[in-house]
Design brief:
The protein is an alpha+beta fold. The protein is built from 13 helices and 40 strands. The radius of gyration is 29 Å and the shape is globular.
């Protein structure tokens, strides 16, 4: 995750001016945060430190010698609290993640799975329990705070305050108000090697531990997230990799009334209705796009609610988000209902071609939790003369003066909803299948040929032409993909599907709408790349909309299934040759994926790390390798289940159908999927998921064999497989195809369970003519 660092004068920015009218308790919390945001050193509160060892979860700070100055105490109600300290001197720190997958991730980017560095300064932000444990009995000493020390102090303070993805003080105050588990701690550490690291432990997060490293990219400093994990994920079964769900709210419904103009101006009111899952709850965080401002926030009693925001519309990227905090006017208990009404304004994004395409994105309303499902009721006001495509079902469409007013409903509950406004031309495509029962429902295509003629003219030097019938080809791919997925998943979209272009690189799956990048509207290439792309985006209606993932550790399931579904489509319409070419392309992409970040070369991480495999620099090769490896996992499972005597994959199809039907309308975990896989393979599959989902090993097989005629018995086939580049306990079922001189074929599965594996196949009735180890690219492996 890239976190933008901004230069701030105080740790966190101001509170919204509309906070008057909040309760006394909320004002008390607000005042505390306001003062904490401008903390200054208390130069009368120095302590000498010698040989102090601070241990906290997976961090050790071994302070050899130096001075600590505490910040000015802050009043919370009637209680005076010390929440921060600054150290200068000598010492070293050690960070050792408590599970293997994170140790490997640390090693990937620091060349060490247990990071040890000497440091010269540390800024600590902590809860009272931490202060009492390490500093309560300390004795004051004399000290000075010179200009150099003050400059470094301010610089470290600014580094923390510039991170829009973390509300450090807000999260600290939650821990102070209602402490749970181990004390809150954030440590910003400057080493002797001019490196900076942040260690953060937030007991309210499902992944309590985070570890970040500062990088300089094009003279722009930023912190990148290297490690993030739960304190409960300690063993290597990965059963607890998602941590414990600590959501405070269960979102029931979003009721949104929004307007957007041709010039991108956006205003809305958003009513969020929820039930409280854990209490006491008085401080709640939301995600909101960087281009959107919270003008005011009211509770169910129409009292103003304090909003804590550390980024006042400084961003311009539609897919970037920030954290905002709400300090409620009272403390809510388990089972209570909570209703909040946000008033928002800002800008939405548009394409830059003279035509109108305004896309709301994913964070145009305050979202609680990235994957929380809710019912959406939306009223969208746009300029008359434009088209609007929204998530879910359109309930009403009417014109009022110069405005077009549409209402939408997303039900069953979905994890997000959005809309797109355009002045593109609309075409309705009807299925011409002569069998009524097999017909696919109509598809609405939103497309502007003139725009693409301009694009083709602009790119004439690249020999980019435009095909007049491309939108018919797109509708054909969409309809045929739906037919293939209906077969595999025993389901099809319920209503008319909208297919529209978008100029954005960002992809978002929304119920009932397929968004396709502008390149695919120009022409269809003969290699199947455009068909693959279109089919994948259609597949997201199944894997991404109807079934979503629980946490980013499970995202590989929906990403992999949407991409592998498109391969199944390619196999149907372009046959096995092109299908196998694509499989080989995918494998090559996984083999070659490397990423360079400020001079560091790193291999792609396990798919269980989701976006963390490629967010360190937003590497496209990393993202591609992650997606393709995720798809190849399903290819391996398909070949593991296939009946080689009939070449039917009925088990694989039945598994996908049951998985889809069981979890339709829900969020899935890797454990859910493994359970289904084990049902259809009939064996425990821990080894498979450990290797391919949570691991990075890719085997290299060296295969050799001999044949011998045994009189009165037949031919004996003796083989040897040497496995390299994997751990000692790596195992895999690998098919072996035997072609006999009489033209017959046979396929057997070998369980390669050692690095030097020998096998014998006796009594073969005919002489083997050719052997193919790992046919159909059944295993992601190199074969020599």
């Amino acid at each position: 995750m890239i976190i933008k660092t901004k230069i701030l004068l105080i740790l966190l920015l101001v509170f919204s001016s509309f906070a008057r009218g909040a309760s006394d308790e909320a004002e008390k919390l607000s005042n505390f945060l306001g003062k904490a945001g401008s903390v200054t050193p208390d130069i009368s509160n120095f302590i000498d430190v010698n040989n102090l060892l601070i241990e906290h979860q997976d961090l050790k700070l071994n302070i050899s010698k130096g001075k600590i100055v505490f910040v000015q105490p802050i009043l919370l109600g009637t209680e005076t609290l010390t929440i921060a300290a600054y150290f200068e001197g000598t010492g070293d720190f050690q960070f050792l993640p408590s599970n293997n997958i994170e140790r490997e991730q640390l090693n990937r980017y620091t060349k060490s799975d247990s990071l040890t560095r000497p440091f010269k300064s540390v800024f600590l932000l902590f809860s009272p329990d931490f202060f009492h444990q390490y500093f309560k009995e300390s004795t004051n000493s004399s000290g000075t705070f010179d200009d150099a020390s003050m400059a470094n102090y301010k610089s470290m303070l600014e580094s923390l305050g510039g991170e829009s993805q973390n509300l450090y003080l807000f999260e600290l105050l939650k821990s102070i108000s209602n402490p749970i588990g181990r004390p809150f701690l954030t440590a910003l550490i400057n080493t002797d090697f001019s490196e900076s690291f942040i260690y953060m432990y937030n007991p309210y997060s499902s992944e309590e531990v985070q570890f970040l490293r500062k990088i300089i990219d094009n003279n722009n400093p930023s912190f990148v997230l290297i490690n993030s994990y739960s304190q409960y994920s300690l063993d290597e079964s990965y059963r607890s990799i998602n941590g414990r769900n600590k959501d405070q709210l269960d979102i029931i419904n979003y009721d949104i009334d929004a307007s957007v103009s041709k010039s991108q101006d956006y205003k809305s009111s958003v009513i969020l209705r929820s039930k409280v899952l854990t209490g006491p709850t008085q401080m709640v965080e939301f995600d909101l796009g960087e281009t959107i401002m919270v003008d005011s926030l009211l509770d169910e009693n129409q009292n103003k609610v304090i909003v804590y925001d550390n980024n006042k519309i400084n961003g311009t990227e539609i897919d970037r988000t920030r954290k905002i905090g709400a300090i409620l006017n009272k403390s809510y208990s388990y089972g209570d209902t909570l209703s909040l009404k946000f008033y928002l304004s800002g800008k939405l994004s548009e394409k830059n071609s003279g035509d109108i395409i305004i896309y709301a994105g994913t964070n145009w309303y305050p979202k609680y939790g990235q994957r929380e499902r809710a019912i959406y009721d939306m009223t969208i006001r746009t300029d008359a003369g434009t088209h609007i495509i929204g998530a879910g079902d359109r309930m009403e469409r009417k014109k009022s003066g110069d405005a077009l007013i549409t209402t939408w409903r997303v039900i069953p509950a979905a994890s997000s909803a959005t809309f797109l406004v355009s002045d593109l031309m609309k075409f309705r495509i009807e299925d011409q299948n002569e069998y009524e029962e097999e017909k696919i429902k109509p598809i609405d295509i939103y497309y502007d040929r003139k725009t693409h003629q301009k694009i083709a003219a602009y790119r004439e030097s690249e020999q980019v032409g435009i095909e007049d019938s491309v939108y018919y080809e797109i509708s054909e791919d969409v309809m045929n993909a739906i037919r293939v997925y209906k077969y595999y998943y025993n389901s099809s979209p319920n209503d008319v599907l909208a297919v529209t272009e978008t100029m954005f690189d960002y992809r978002e799956s929304i119920p009932g709408t397929v968004m396709l990048g502008y390149d695919t509207w120009i022409r269809t290439d003969p290699f199947g790349n455009e068909k693959l792309y279109r089919a994948r985006e259609v597949a997201r209606q199944w894997w991404g909309v109807e079934i979503d993932y629980e946490t980013y550790h499970d995202k590989w399931i929906t990403d992999g299934l949407s991409l592998y579904s498109s391969l199944l489509y390619i196999q149907r319409v372009m046959k096995n040759k092109v299908f196998m070419e694509k499989i080989q392309e995918f494998k090559d992409a996984v083999y070659s994926a490397k990423h360079y970040i400020t001079g560091i070369e790193a291999e792609v991480g396990p798919v269980a790390l989701g976006h963390r495999t490629f967010y360190l620099g937003k590497s496209k090769t990393y993202e591609s390798a992650y997606n393709k490896k995720s798809a190849l996992i399903f290819h391996m499972l398909r070949n593991l289940m296939i009946d080689f005597s009939t070449m039917k994959d009925d088990k694989f199809t039945a598994m996908l159908q049951e998985f889809y039907q069981r979890y339709r309308g829900k969020n899935v975990t890797t454990a859910h999927f493994q359970q289904i896989v084990e049902k259809y393979t009939g064996i425990k599959m821990d080894w498979f998921f450990k290797q391919w989902v949570y691991g990075t090993d890719i085997p290299e097989y060296q295969f050799s064999y001999t044949t011998e005629l045994i009189p009165a018995e037949g031919y004996k086939l003796s083989g040897n497989v040497i496995t390299n580049n994997v751990s000692d306990d790596f195992i895999m079922y690998v098919p072996l195809q035997i072609e006999f001189e009489n033209g017959n074929k046979a396929i057997v599965r070998l369980l390669i369970d050692s690095k030097d594996y020998n096998f014998v196949l006796p009594n073969l009735p005919n002489r083997p003519k050719e052997l193919i180890f790992n046919p159909f690219e059944s295993v992601l492996a190199r074969v020599k």
